[in-house]
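ingest -> validate -> predict -> emit
validate: passed (alphabet ok, no gaps, 257 aa)
predict: started
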Amino acid sequence: MAGVRRERDDAVGVLTLDEPATLNAMTPDLLGDLAKAIGEMTGDPEVRALVLTGAGRGFCSGQNLKAAAILGDDIVDGVMRHYWPAFKALRECRVPVVVAVNGVAAGGGFSLAMAGDVIVASRSASFIQVFSRIALVPDLGSTWMLPRLVGRQRALELMMMNEPLSAEQAKEWGLVRDVFDDAALRDGALALARRLANGPTRALVATRRLLDDSEHATYADQFRREIETQAEIRNSADALEGRNAFLEKRAARFSGR
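emit:
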């Protein structure tokens, strides 16, 4: 059945967009299932990191135009109702999210890749905005995420010129952390996700939230917010374990609590 495939690899949940015939093009059903799958996976306290990837030859080719009618005449209401929950679930996920881009990430698929915490890519992967080809503007969070990841000038170039960005170039620009041979992508993504899962995930997610909040805060406000967050988590099990491990000169054993 088309949708999102769920798998477990110890403490890592693996979610695979599973509509390869369309290069996993976005539909309300697919993104609805993605939001549901994220909730199901992260509802399990034993899951401490996620990997999001695509089946077949591509990660996500963007909007499935044949399904666009489902969004209705009010495009704003339709997108916010059908698409936003999946993006929100990724941005606010209670565990770190690794996005493994296999093949193309185009248009909204590019936006989806950026909604995770860390991107890794196969050597054959490419990223392309495509919107100006059809006289539209980037959407699904691209104008917020992309300049923050690669800088304003490079983001504007990608959005205006519609030239594909290779995996290697994306790594050079700081969009992608690692590039793997195609056959090694899954193993590479899982290794990174396991590393995150073994970390103090509560603190990692709080760090993500602080970075997102900082985009709209003054230096003084952010300075205070950082300390407020420290006060919230300083007595967590992981924080106590981290301090004890430091004092005892041993590796910390984090639990995500």
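The mean pLDDT is 92.
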